[in-house]
Amino acid sequence: MALDRLLKTAGEKARAGIILADDAVSAFLPKNLLYQLCTTLLERDYLCHIPGNTVAFNCPEMFDYLLNAALPAVYDSNGPEIGIWSAGCSTGEEAFSLAMVALEYMERTPDAHIRITATDLNENRIIMARTGLFSSVRNLQCINKGTETVIREDPKWNILKKYSSERARIRYPEGNLYRMEANPEVVGLCTFEVGDLITSPKEADIVVVSNVIKHMNLADRRAARRSLESAVKPDGYLLVHDRTHPKFNLHLESDTTFLAYRKLQGSKDIDAVQAK
Question: Whole-model pTM?
Answer without folding.
Answer: 0.76
